[in-house]
Amino acid sequence: MRDLALKFRIGQFWLLLLVVGVASLYPLPPGTLKHGIDKVAHLVTYLLLFISLDFAFASGRRLVVKMILLFAFSWLIEILQHFMPPREYSLYDLLANLTGLSLGLLPVLFLKRYRRR
User: Fold this and answer.
1) Domain boundaries along the sequence of the chain
2) What's the whole-model pTM score?
């Protein structure tokens, strides 16, 4: 049963990563997302990606490596968007992604501390 739960957690992470990648590169008409809500969407998406990654792989360990990998993924997405008009490269999107990853640390660290007790 534990093996099945682990496979489910790993599968849901990869599925979420795939959905984020496809949605991030899907061409949208200009002005589809308002500027402010777009940044909130980035923040929440990367917060959930970080938590999902941590639950799927070695929960509570190698947190900096996980953050770096997801930030590199978000940076790659931004670079690819530069070549896919009307999408564009945005430092503000990267900042929102990094903020989401950083906020994702909070529940992970809380659970890590809670488990030790």
Assistant:
1) 2-116
2) 0.89
